[in-house]
Structures are given as C-alpha cells and as structure tokens.
Amino acid sequence: MATAFKTKSVAERLGVNPTTVQRWIKYFKLDCEMNELGHYVLTEDTVHTLQVIHKQLSEGKKLKDVKLGGTKEPIRDKEMVASHVFNDRFGQILLHVDQLEKKLSEKADEVVEYQMLQHRQEIDDLADLLKKVDKRLQSLEHSISEKENQVVYLNNHKKPKGPKKKMFSNIFSFILK
Fold first, then answer.
1. Cα atoms found within 13 Å of the Cα of residue 45, Cβ hemisphere only
2. Strands (E), the chain
3. Helix (H) and strand (E) counts for the chain?
4. What CA–CA distance (Å, rounded) separates 161 from 45?
5. DSSP category for residue 162
6. Cβ proximity of 42 and 12 under 8 Å
7. Which of 10, 64, 92, 118 is the most buried (most CB within 10 A)?
8. Which helix (H) or strand (E) holds 159?
9. Rounded distance, CA 31 to CA 50, Å?
10. What's the pLDDT at 163?
C-alpha cells in the first residue's frame, strides 16, 4: 500500500496554501482519489508532481508554461548554504533589524512629541477659557452688587440725611423757640 498524504501536509511541505495545492490539482488534472469527506488523498507520485510544479513556478514560470515531464529525480526541499554566506546574510538581517528598530523608536518619539504638543495646546485653550469665565464672573458680581445697592435705596424711600440739613436747623433754631 502506498503512502497517502493530505492536502494540508503537502501544502506545508511545499510552503504554500492548501487552496493552492487544490488549484494545481484541478489545473493540471492530476489523478487523485477523494476520501469520504471529499478531501484529496495524494499519493507519492502526485506529491512529486506537485513538487515539480512548485519548483518550476518558483523559477518564475507561469502556470501555463509549467511542463510535467515525468522526471523522477528527487527534489531537494532546501539547498545547503555555506556557513560564511549564512553568516553574511544573517549579519545583514541583523543590521536591517537594528535599522528598523531605530526608525521605529524615532517614530514613537515623534508620536509622543506630537501628542504632548496637542495636550499643551488643549491646556492653553482651557486656561484662556478659564480666564474669560473668571472675567465674566467678576463682571456679574459687580453688576449684582450695584443692583443690591439700588434695591436698598428703593426700599428705604428716604434719602439719607446729610449734614447740611442739621447745620441749617442748628442755625435757625433760635427762631423756633
């Protein structure tokens, strides 16, 4: 009995989406069986054919240009890389990551600075509004105190006696006696 593979496991092995594997099976009309749930059951030959398709697409060929010649040579999943090449590439990646972190930090600082300026502007606006409210309140208090003085004057119906009236009454007091 031949080994059977699921679409998902083949997709993970090839590094593609399972729907891509399904699309390739339909496009190239690969011979596959289906289980009781309607899922593809792939044989080793079908997996090898899918590897050939994947390799040709990775080389830049279009789907319509892929040729299924029937070569049975094994396809290596990953090529070996010399250690100095790996170290160089790893160093470049680390350098790139450092640059990205630096840019991210600068951007975060800019965002914080912008937010601080926005908060400062809001505080200034609130301080101006508070000054206006205070000035308006003082004006209203002054107006109310003037009104209170007028009310007191109207309630008394008497004018306050001034010192002149007493002075005249003292001068002419001898006439009344």
1. 8
2. 5-6, 33-34, 40-42
3. 6, 3
4. 125
5. P
6. no
7. 10
8. none
9. 12
10. 62
Structure tokens at 112: 């914080």
Residue-wise pLDDT tens digits, 128-140: 999 999 999 999 9
**Residue-wise pLDDT tens digits, 20-52:** 988 898 888 888 888 888 888 888 888 888 888
Structure tokens, 120? 């400062």
CA distance 13 to 48: 11
**Edge-to-edge strands of the sheet including 5-6?**
5-6, 40-42, 33-34
Cα–Cα distance for residue pair 6/19, rounded to 1 Å = 12
CA 127 to chain centre: 31
CA distances from 63 to 44, 50, 84, 88, 163 (A): 22, 12, 35, 34, 117
Q: How many CA atoms lie within 13 A of 56 on its CB side?
A: 17
Residues in the chain: 177
Q: Map tokens 């007191």 to a residue.
A: 152
pTM score of the predicted model: 0.40
The identity of residue 23, as a single letter, is: R
Contact in structure between 67 and 53 (CB atoms under 8 Å): no
pLDDT at 100: 96
- Structure tokens that stand for 111 in this block: 């965002």
- Specify the pLDDT at position 78: 56
Residues 6+ away with beta carbon under 8 Å from 65? 56
